[in-house]
Amino acid sequence: MALLRISSPHTQRAGHRTSWVMQMVILATVPGIAVQTWLFGWGNLINILIASIAALACEAAILSIRRRSVGFFLKDYSALLTAVLLGIALPPSVPWWVTVTAVSFAIIFAKQLYGGLGNNPFNPAMVGYAIVLVSFPVPMSQWVGVQSVVTSGDSLSFWQSLQAIFQTLPTIDGYTMATPLDGFKNKELVDSATAFNTIEALQTANLNAWLWVNIAYLLGGLALFWLRIITWHTPVALLGALLVMSGVFYLFDVSHAATPLFHITTGAAMFGAFFIATDPVSSCTSNRGKLIYGAGIGILIYIIRTWGGYPDGVAFAVLLMNFSAPLIDYYTQPRSYGHKKSKKGLKVGEEK
Amino acid sequence: MTTSSETDNIDAVEADKPSANYAEIIYNGIWKNNPALVQLLGLCPMLAVTSTVVNALGLGLATMVVLVGSNIAVSLIRNYVADAVRLPAFVMIIASFTTCIELIMQAYTYELYQILGIFIPLIVTNCAILGRADAFASRNPVIPSAVDGFMMAFGFGIILVALGAMRELIGQGTLFADMQLLFGDMAINWKWVVFEDYPNVLFVVLPPGAFIGLGLIIAFKNYLDEREKKRIAAQKELDGPSESKRVRVTGKIS
B118 lies in which domain range? Predict the structure, then answer.
């Protein structure tokens, strides 16, 4: 069993360099990216490419301003991972400047201004995502639909994706539609059964597409677990809390609430649980802390999805729990073997 | 609170000599002791209303009127108010001036008054104003107090306008929009659309953008200060040791 190493939590496993961990996480996103590309066209791949270039450029620029070794820090792949995660999270047809804004904000403000990898209190990818979500609500709310559901009856070709990203495709509205979560959120007072029959975003084909995306990210996440890059605590707690919350409220109001399965298989539930919430730098370090942290995210996701202003809430839930991660860590210090019970929290009037 | 004790010391010395050092007052107000960048006072209106140049300028001018007026009034009564009741007296004076400027804005720039809303009455609670009244005006004659009030408000206003311009430019892609709210019909064409077809960056328009903008301005000021310090140090080194060196007569001479 590996010892818990509190310092430098991004190098969790002895013997492996940071770059290996980052490379493996990037590789683990491949099934998800492949499914997204198959279902929604080339947009995500182009976004990832744009994001990667922007991320490496920003990282190199800031590193040289800070007089740090550019080559050493670029080779740890952390900027590339941030770019890949953002490229996946952003809608496939989003204009290129949205991607560039998100990535540069993530790298410059959320990561390098705090001191670089290992010092950032917030998940950089989610900071970038939240910034563009708050700033540009219109392009951020259009997601490419599945072939058989959208009005044009076709999915974007490679050339059309490029045109959409560089804003020269006038017929983009024919290819985009609301995501299932968006559609469900805006069903107004219609009860669930009618909503699933009438709203086009909630048709079976679209739901299945999202089911496939989530299964792919689940596979990638399990690979990370198998490689022991992540522990089971955060994803299990997150998904468990989301299941419990949605289950309880579904039982309360069967006709209007969505099923727990709907919450787990649409939107960014799996991606968030395995790839975002498990970020070793900005999440909790102790195992019990991870359980609390993951459960908090799960509960917040349900709250934001159901009563908040946005259809999906993974980014905001993760950022809010990043705030509280140091506090949770303080109260969940494990007891070292052979030592007295560890001190938890801070008592009033006590010297630190 | 090193800054306040520092100014207290300076002011205590200045109180003895009637001819205050105006250059120092000006330098303090605009740069060294800038209310917005160094004292970090009055942050609430600063972060809330600086979304455009016109809002920032309106609030800056209103603050200036109140600060100069209150500094003069406080300086006039400084020898007649008992120490125990001086703060209530200062607050009353500041509140009176704030009410004046509120009524004036209501009369002449009604739309701007509505846009700035609660932040005009809230000038009363701006610590920069009470701080200057207590730290400077209550110990100095009228003219230096007036200059100090003006310079402090000027330093505050410059940062407000800079932040407003930054946020308006990045947030909406324009500069000097709606200036007619402040300057009347002659300013109706002052709006300068810097970027055509610009998507509004809501994050910068909303208060979180002000925090980041202010942080960047403070960082830039610190950078300039640091560079100046280095330059002076380098200059000293270049000049070599000063001529009148004390001759060492004991121990080893290195």
Answer: 2-226
